Amino acid sequence: MSDSNEKSDFIRDIIRMDLENRKIHTRFPPEPNGYLHIGHAKSICLNFGLAEEFDGSCNLRFDDTNPTKEESEYVESIKTDIRWLGFDWGQRQYYASDYFEQLHEFAIALIKKDKAYVCDLSAEEIRQYRGTLTTPGKESPYRNRSQEDNLQLFKEMQEGKYPDGLKALRAKIDMSSPNLNMRDPVMYRILHKSHHRTGSNWCIYPTYDWAHGQSDSIEKITHSICTLEFEDHRPLYDWFIKQLGIHHPRQIEFARLNLTYTVMSKRLLLELVEKKYVNGWDDPRMPTISGMRRRGYPPEAIRNFCLQIGVSKAESTVEIAFLEHFIREDLNKKAARVMAVLDPLKVVIDNYPDDQEEELTAINNPEDICAGTRNIPFSKILYIEREDFMEDAPSKFYRLAPGREVRLRYAYFIKCVDVVKDRDGNILELHCTYDSATRGGDAPDGRKVKATLHWVSAKHCLTAEVRLFDNLFIKENPLKVEEGHDFKENLSPHSLKIVKDCKLEPSLGKVKPSNIFQFERLGYFCVDPDTTNEKIVFNRTVTLKDEWAKIRTATFTIL
Ligand code: ATP
Ligand code: MG
Asked: From CA 496, how far away is CA 477, in angstroms rounded?
């Protein structure tokens, strides 16, 4: 890589200093207790990205030390998501549970060094004895057991002699340390639970703090990159590694990604899924990678976003609009343009012959000449967007109104001559006239129109269901709630709107799930996997910026 292209930030600066004669070796260590979200994407892009950039490698390691919450479904979803984002761990797929034997031996080594002991305090007592940030901890009465007793009791713990929680193995460090993590943390707890990989081989399980650093060491990770909340755990990880005399990875912490109008914790996302506030982990409103995929976010755009937000030590929250910006930018280059009408209003062209039909030429993507053109049918009865017509139009409304002329994209100028209503005053259809001299272009007499509308031919169009999404939460920070209240009270009642009777141009007859299009003037839309031979379902990925909507409602979203 040439110098001018080299990215620079505090993590990369450290790595450059460290690497001299070594290859970088990073890892992405998800706990398989939920689906990955966009925060994980930041970590994936960083860890796999650094390995690519510095010509090293990145392991995928499932941090599966907790048998109660982990499932194989999550393991599979994590692999799918990482591959979809465009990264590859090759043969380097590991599990913390692969190291259960080794960790057990390490624990025995610490007992033999008098650096670990079996403690009979309950979890609650351990918490009380630990003290607080301002008061020192109290030593456990079991702290000074003999090495022989500790070895024997630890063996009995492992053999299943005790019920859950009756004993624990703890590191023997310093109950008066200002760092709470150093006050004799628990290394093993008793849990009579079957594990998704080791079955019933074990009834003691290592804690995250005991497993994580040693797993990094066993895999010879050079740079162990994690989020800021582990800064205070670093002295503990360093202590374990020093006591054991094993390879020492360098841990570097960075600030986790937060996004406005959503939550980013697997625990909370799981709650939304389990209590059916959303339709599964891959609900397009979710900040999960699978949700974003279903919604139509391209992986390249997510990677670009992760690159642009960069890494830092300062906690911050990124605007969701910033992410959407990268989605639009990417899709603008790639997505074929088509015409679709979300809220159809019938238009009859009075002076167009009843049985006439013609094919007009439409450009597939003005950003990509290679994408070519297609034909779209035109006939006497059309649909336009209901909001493109106003009976009493204010001066800033340039679209169709009684007596006003507009252009139909790729077709003709039409002028509204009549409005047909039902008894309640609802508009049923418009009558217009067209000017045949304006076919696919301008008026020969040079007269101008101020708007170009999208449309479909009623006789030829397809019907589809379109799902429109808005932010999942109404508050920028949904977790900010008064005491006694719950983040779920901030869920938006308008985050999903299903529109059943949308009209599509007939070229969309053979679409497949995940195909993505720009519906002209409306936004980007992606074919949903619920699509069958009988029914087409589209998801709105993201809107286009609509100046009129901005003036009208001072918001970006039109639902
Ligand atoms: P959550 O709080 O959502 O449950 P987690 O940290 O418990 O997340 P893990 O499966 O342990 O989830 O995370 C795997 C890796 O992804 C870790 O290295 C973690 O630091 C990183 N990670 C998790 N959330 C974020 C985030 N919001 N921004 C950046 N990195 C993250
Ligand atoms: Mg975690």
From this structure: 19
